[in-house]
Task: inverse folding
């Protein structure tokens, strides 16, 4: 993984350098661009990552370098925030607000598994790893998964009320469809709407499937219908990648959003009305959506940690390893 991580780090630093020299912002808070000087931060992070990843593969690596890689991995994860929203916008909308910012999110997300794998690659040659048997998460974690699943029920009911022509929070289904068309919804979105389906509800269903795959044993072994893969172990990165991206996006988005909705309910701040007929209607819709994202995001974080721990390879002594001679 070392050479791949070095290549990624060099590309990441080069991307930041080009953006910094051109004065192109990499960070957006909604439609508001952040300072273009953050590109230099990306240059520094990428350069340090390249040097550290190269040093990891050399003999006599100091353990402190692995901690540096884990720190950079954390920064890359923070920089990838918003990738999930970019994917949803590209799928159901006309496009992202900033192609440069979306590219930055994607590059940072690619770096997270590369850096993590490189940091974990320094093992003793006398050790091998074996996969643990499939196992279920603890009962408290499964209860959290139930909470994350049920949190989407009010959200799904609200969305399906609109797609089936009903009225909720002062908005009819026809009005919501007109709003979607006005906001540049894609053909996929409008087609689903015409079928009485909502794209975000389908994504929520996939999210619930992912959540239970993280806490049940069947999420660690390919099922029978996968034919040649039946019975084989699921690579850890396959469920963990979308889980970590989803958790890193939805948990802070939902929790911070619930905090803002709480302040709006207490009349400390004003909830933007948006396309709703009144601030009260907008607040009701916000509570339903943000509460679902918050509970699910936290549940996904806990489930991903449980999956990470339960599927962690077990270290065993290599049967052909030579004993280390004593210094005496």
Result:
């Amino acid at each position: 993984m070392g050479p791949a991580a070095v290549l990624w780090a060099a590309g990441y630093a080069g991307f930041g350098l080009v953006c910094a020299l051109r004065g192109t912002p990499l960070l957006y808070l909604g439609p508001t661009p952040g300072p273009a000087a953050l590109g230099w931060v990306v240059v520094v992070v990428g350069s340090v990552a390249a040097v550290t990843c190269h040093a990891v593969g050399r003999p006599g690596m100091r353990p402190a370098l692995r901690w540096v890689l884990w720190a950079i991995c954390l920064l890359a994860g923070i920089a990838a925030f918003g990738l999930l929203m970019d994917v949803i916008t590209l799928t159901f909308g006309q496009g992202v607000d900033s192609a440069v910012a979306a590219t930055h999110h994607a590059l940072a997300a690619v770096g997270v598994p590369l850096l993590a794998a490189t940091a974990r690659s320094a093992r003793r040659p006398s050790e091998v790893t074996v996969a643990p048997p499939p196992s279920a998460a603890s009962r408290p974690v499964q209860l959290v998964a139930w909470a994350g699943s049920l949190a989407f029920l009010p959200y799904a009911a609200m969305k399906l009320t609109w797609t089936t022509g009903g009225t909720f929070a002062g908005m009819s289904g026809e009005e919501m469809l007109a709003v979607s068309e006005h906001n540049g919804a894609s053909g996929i979105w409008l087609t689903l709407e015409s079928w009485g389906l909502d794209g975000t509800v389908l994504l929520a269903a996939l999210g619930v499937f992912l959540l239970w795959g993280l806490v049940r044993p069947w999420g660690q072994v390919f099922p029978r219908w996968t034919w040649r893969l039946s019975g084989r172990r699921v690579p850890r990165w396959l469920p963990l990648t979308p889980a970590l991206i989803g958790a890193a996006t939805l948990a802070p988005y939902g929790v911070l959003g619930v905090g803002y909705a709480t302040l709006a309910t207490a009349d400390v701040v004003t909830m933007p009305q948006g396309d709703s007929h009144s601030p009260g209607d907008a607040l009701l819709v916000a509570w339903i959506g943000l509460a679902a994202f918050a509970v699910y995001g936290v549940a996904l974080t806990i489930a991903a940690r449980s999956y990470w721990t339960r599927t962690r390879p077990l270290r065993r002594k290599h049967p052909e390893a030579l004993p280390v001679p004593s210094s005496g």
Notes: Residues 139-315 form one domain. Strands lie at 28-29, 32-33, 127-130, 167-168, 171-172, 314-317. DSSP finds twelve helices and six strands in the chain.
